[in-house]
């Protein structure tokens, strides 16, 4: 992935990025997808949803996805997948009745057992019930648990933070994005309270005995790990929220702040997602200087770049969060590449630019016209000679404006 960014900085970004006039990219199945790696990256409803996307769009791995589906307790998702498979096999006359007959049964029997157990506390009982509902795919029922006042039973900052993060997860799975922002604010407030309480605890350790100090240091270490892990998770959530609202610059900036050493969020995102989101959104919105200082020179984000060495369009289109935005982000990257290519020149040959960016001369000219109309390039086009000239900047007017 690092060579992609460096290639862009050298003004040699010549990939066939689609523009608004080009058709949306199609899957070509050019590289295999590792289902075992997928199962290792995600868990819970996130794994089920990702499998559903792969199951429908990637015919080569349906058999493997079917095997993973049979190990789930999410009955509705399981039945939906096999109904889809029946529809695909209908023309061949081979329905998957066996798959439906051998569907998951552990989830159906687990819920009554979960309700009947004698839990140590109301909070733990509600949390266990919540996890059971999630495994079975009853997301709406899981959300209702929080509507019953689960927060009232959270007696520590750790429980409050975990409860809010769980709430955010199910809200995102239900695509209720309007409810995510206030929950993010509450998580950030709870993290700040944890930081303050941890600071007070550290300052008080100097006045206690040796054994009490050791216990206090252990508790402080655990609290610090909770704080850093929660910060990484909420940063990922904010990035995901920005991606949904198409605020790509905010997505890149948040991804650059996440520390891979503390990031473990398989129920929603994996490190590969952060690497992809951060890189593509940075290429689409950052200036060259920002790419160099914030991306290539970032010790935090470099860990994510090393975890995802290559980017393939097929994989991007199969990412449930990024796929709706792939075409637009590719278009933004292409526009920025054209602007960066023309910046050092007073005059440029449109025919040569068309060859570099792999389009026809007329298409290249149309793209340049669009950039000029949007004030991305200050230039004029000589359509007869097929050249583009940069306008002479009025230094006096520019100085007066500044």
Automatic annotation (TrEMBL):
One of its GO terms (cellular component) is COP9 signalosome. Residues 225-395 form the PCI domain. It is found in: Cytoplasm; Nucleus. Residues 95-116 are annotated as: Disordered. InterPro entries: PCI_dom (IPR000717), Rpn7/CSN1 (IPR019585), Rpn7_N (IPR045135), WH_DNA-bd_sf (IPR036390). It comes from the Eukaryota. PROSITE patterns: PCI (PS50250). Pfam families: PCI, RPN7. Residues 97-116 have a biased composition (Polar residues). Belongs to the CSN1 family. This is PCI domain-containing protein.
């Amino acid at each position: 992935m690092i060579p992609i960014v460096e290639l862009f900085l050298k003004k040699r970004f010549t990939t066939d990025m689609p523009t608004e006039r080009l058709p949306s990219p199609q899957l070509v199945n050019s590289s295999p997808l590792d289902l075992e790696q997928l199962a290792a990256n995600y868990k819970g409803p996130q794994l089920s949803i990702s499998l559903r996307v792969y199951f429908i769009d990637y015919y080569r791995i349906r058999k493997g996805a079917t095997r993973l589906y049979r190990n789930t307790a999410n009955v509705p998702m399981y039945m939906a997948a096999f109904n889809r498979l029946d529809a695909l096999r209908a023309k061949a006359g081979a329905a998957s009745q066996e798959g439906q007959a051998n569907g998951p049964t552990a989830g159906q029997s687990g819920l009554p057992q979960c309700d009947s157990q004698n839990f140590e506390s109301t909070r733990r009982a509600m949390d266990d019930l919540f996890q059971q509902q999630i495994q079975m795919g009853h997301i709406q029922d899981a959300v209702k648990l929080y509507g019953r006042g689960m927060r009232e039973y959270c007696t520590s900052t750790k429980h409050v933070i975990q409860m809010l993060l769980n709430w955010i997860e199910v809200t995102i799975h239900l695509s209720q994005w309007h409810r995510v922002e206030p929950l993010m604010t509450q998580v950030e407030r709870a993290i700040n309270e944890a930081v303050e309480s941890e600071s007070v605890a550290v300052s008080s350790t100097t006045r206690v005995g040796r054994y009490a100090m050791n216990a206090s240091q252990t508790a402080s270490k655990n609290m610090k790990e909770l704080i850093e892990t929660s910060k990484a998770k909420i940063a990922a959530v904010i990035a995901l929220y920005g991606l949904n609202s198409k605020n790509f610059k905010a997505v890149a900036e948040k991804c650059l702040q996440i520390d891979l050493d503390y990031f473990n969020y398989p129920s929603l995102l994996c490190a590969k997602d952060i690497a992809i989101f951060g890189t593509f959104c940075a290429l689409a919105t950052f200036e060259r200087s920002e790419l160099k200082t914030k991306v290539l020179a970032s010790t935090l984000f470099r860990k994510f770049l090393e975890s995802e060495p290559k980017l393939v369009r097929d994989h991007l289109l199969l990412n449930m969060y990024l796929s709706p935005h792939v075409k637009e982000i590719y278009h933004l990257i292409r526009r920025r590449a054209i602007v960066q290519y023309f910046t050092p020149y007073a005059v440029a040959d449109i025919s040569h630019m068309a060859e570099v960016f792999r389009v026809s001369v007329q298409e290249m000219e149309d793209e340049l016209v669009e950039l000029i109309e949007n004030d991305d390039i200050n230039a004029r086009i000589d359509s007869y000679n097929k050249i583009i000239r940069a306008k002479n900047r009025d230094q006096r007017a520019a100085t007066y404006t500044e």
